[in-house]
Amino acid sequence: MPKLDRLFRILMEHKASDLHLEEWQKPKMRLHGAIREIPGEDVLTHAMILELLSEIVDEGGWERFKKTGDIDFAYSMGHDARFRANYYRQFYGLGAVFRHIPSKIVPLEKLDMPDTMKTFGEFQSGLVLITGPTGSVKSTTLASVIDYINRHKVKKIITIEEPVEFIHTSQKSMMIHREVGLDTESFASGLKSAIKSDAEIILVGEMRDRETIMLALTAAQMGILVFGTLHTNSAAKTIDRIIDVFPMDQKNQIRTVLANTLQGAVSQQLLKSADGSRRWVAYEILLRSSALGPIITEGDVSKLTSEMQTNRAKGMILMDDCLLELVKQGRVTKDDAFMKAVNKAGFMARLGVGPAMV
């Protein structure tokens, strides 16, 4: 049994989300958003961390790590758990972080999200984006949406990830997982192949470059339902991020394509609960409406705020409105909500407090 499995079991016993290993430091875990040392562990020498890291990666992956200084992969601890691993070199030596991937996918019906999320499983084509900073459970939300489709629809679904995280067993749908670096060279090459393979739904683990974004938009135009992720924290910033990837002479064309294909966007952030016992998801939800296309085409995303407020009854919600609800419910503190707010001045006014009081 790899020696790392012992640390993974400690992580799961504490219900922590991440394991952090750094050369010349003690092992640490992230619990409810805070990083803390694992009690009773020794400082990791070079020889110790080298042994821990080399045990769970294959020879080819280890050689890539030694050559490039970075590697991402998934590790399965038997049937008990899976972990997303990231190895890297840093100033003091070697380091690694492991994200615990729950062995069971949370059904969409039991996720801490509104029923509106089921809408995404009903779309026939277009682009749906799940966005947020690293660690905002975007992958968990996406997995729940794909699971919902898998259980209720007869579709061919291809996921392109680096690495593959949640494993979906084919139910009503046909599930195909492809891992960047193992099954396909890149997200772009995986997307090109998926477009040609009669897929009805494609999940792109990360839309990180212009070519991948362009291919995702092309697939959505062709009648495929495309799910993707971005590192943005609001609907307006999500739209701007996609447009800004392209040069000036292409921006109008991309606005038109995005205006015709964007079905919805969900932005997520995680906040520590007021009692420190767990974390809550704050979210912003944008859905397609008659006004969305013109707003994107005209490049006036400032109108999104009023559009989302007007359509609150249809399932749309602004991030700051969701944060305010979490505060009123006593689930999170005013301080933590303020730090995540998009319009901080307006959020303070709605809380009825001044800057010094938050």
Protein model, in words:
Helices cover 36% and strands 25% of the residues. With 358 residues, it is of the alpha/beta class. It folds into two domains: 4-101, Beta-Lactamase; 108-351, 3-Layer(aba) Sandwich (Rossmann fold), CATH 3.40.50. The strands form two sheets. The protein has a seven-stranded mixed sheet, sandwiched between helices. A six-stranded antiparallel sheet has the order 3-2-1-6-5-4, with helices on one face. Helix 12 runs antiparallel to helix 13 (344-351). It is globular and about 60 Å long. The chain starts with a helix and ends in a 7-residue tail after the last helix. The model has no long low-confidence stretch (mean pLDDT 93).
CATH class of the largest domain: Alpha Beta
CATH topology of the largest domain: Rossmann fold
Strand fraction band? 15-25%
Task: Summarize the biggest pleated sheet.
Answer: 7 strands, mixed
Query: Given the C-alpha coordinates, what overall shape results?
Result: globular
Number-wise, the strands total 13
Q: Give the total of domains.
A: 2
Low-confidence blocks of residues: none
* Helix-strand category: alpha/beta
Q: In which range does the helix fraction lie?
A: 25-40%
Strand/helix succession: HEEEHHEEEEHEEHEHEHHEEHHHHH
Overall pLDDT score: 93
